[in-house]
Specification:
By secondary structure, the chain is α+β, with helices and mostly antiparallel strands. It is built from two helices and 18 strands. The protein folds into two domains: 2-46, no CATH class; 53-172, Immunoglobulin-like, CATH 2.60.40.
Amino acid sequence: DQYAGGSHYTNGKKKEGDLVFYLQYHKDLQKYKEVFRYKSLKVYENKKVMERAFALKDYEVIKDTNKALEKLKEEKIDLRKKVILEKEPVYGGKPGSYNKESKVKILSYKPNSIEIKANLASRSIIVISDNYYPGWNAYIDSKKAPVNIANTSFRAVGINRGKHRLELKYEPTSFRNGLIISTSSLLLVLGFIFGPVVRKRYVK
């Protein structure tokens, strides 16, 4: 579609022309399944889409975001087998027994929390295909663990082999500080209200 009067910017510099939107499609549709058709309109499902949460053993640490993006553009990199991390992973959870093969299952998915059950044959990186944002905390078997940045924008948590429960919670500092202030204020008010009553009882 085309909208007259739109502005076109390339690398921050204004260019001549209208704002135009083009509908594009992949020539190779082998990995797509047609799920809906209406006249000339077709809707396809990507059969090879990556899971929302999955485990990988192979990783590479690239601290510079621009260099990491260049690496991700390489056609030879298989993101189903390897993840690009911002920093060296720290593996949490006590190593333990496991079933035959590694498996990751999402038990609960909410906007501010995710609960995952992991059965890992070896220590692995659990990649969660959701945007990383400061304030997300990870807990492995109820113990806090660091959250890494995967593929420049996703979340990742290192976990030792065995059966573990991984929880990710959005707990921004502003919310935590607000909760502390609210709790302190409530205790202060209760002290003013009930303090005199307690003192009178002791006087009697």
